[in-house]
Predict the structure.
Amino acid sequence: MIKIIGVRFKPVGKMYYFDPMDLDIKTGDYVIVETSRGIEYGEVVQGVKEVEERVITKPLKEVLRLATEEDTAHFNENKRKEKEAYDICVEKIHKHGLEMKLVEVEYTFDENKILFYFTADGRVDFRELVKDLASVFRTRIELRQIGVRDESKSMGSIGVCGRNLCCSQFLGEFVPVSIKMAKEQGLSLNPSKISGACGRLMCCLKYEQDTYEELIKVSPKAGAVVSTPDGEGTVLNVSLLRGKVKVRFDNDGTVNMKEYSVSELKTLEDGKEEAEDEYMTEEEKKLIESLEDEPEEKKDTKNRGKEKNRPQRPKQKPAKKNEQVSEKKDEKKDEKKDEKKDEKKDEKKDEKRKPIKGFRKRRPKKNAEDSKSGE
């Protein structure tokens, strides 16, 4: 077992675990800790408790000290500087003509880095902006592009329910939400009714999804043939939360309808519920699909295509073992062929040098003087 505490650096943000060491730390205290971004000032939202080591991601960083009054004053001073940095950055963005919206500015506690959070439709070339900001603040500058959900969480707003946004009040992390949840809960696929202030599907669709999934397992679908205390009938409508099912009976040309509880019915033949999106146009379907969050990989590929109007090179897959073996065999075959060719060339050269059969070598002609002396 190991002792940990939970620290949060924003009022509504992710909780991080730290080693409390031998300090007497309680919930609500402020501490100074070391993070990947540097020295940070955070609030303890979970007191000291013991957990198993396998639950914690190692290495677990230690708490440096409890925050003093000077640390709190320094933290408040950084918050004041963030407002000034925000105004300066907005001016620089307009100066460089960049299509981006600044959302938030954050100073690290030791002032070694300033983080600027912004939103944009695609990728933005902000290299010149970073140089300009670095020359003003004389410290490390980091620009981070965030999504529309993070923007709504940071700025806050009022939801369709009339209350403050859940993400800006108590949601530490975003949970994936899909159109399937709205369909299973019987909601109208109207973008204005199922989307939030950020333009994406409302996070509250996830709250009751587990209950709906359990009720769907034990309830018959619309169109199913069921056995009731009054005979066989066809399911017309299912009210999941009430646990009621409306059944239609066709007897001698007369149609009767009656409502039963789920426990009174037994499914004889499964039915297929009619999908609401079957009557939608292609444009309406695309609009509904755009409410879902896209994976990061797809976003990157889209942004790259906008940034560079040229096709991407396909990624080369690592060669498999069988392919590597075949390549080595081909290389050996090529080497043997080259050796044979060289041997044949050498043989031809040697044949040219050999004397041809049936012919004698001509003797050199003697001079006239040599012939006379011989006589």
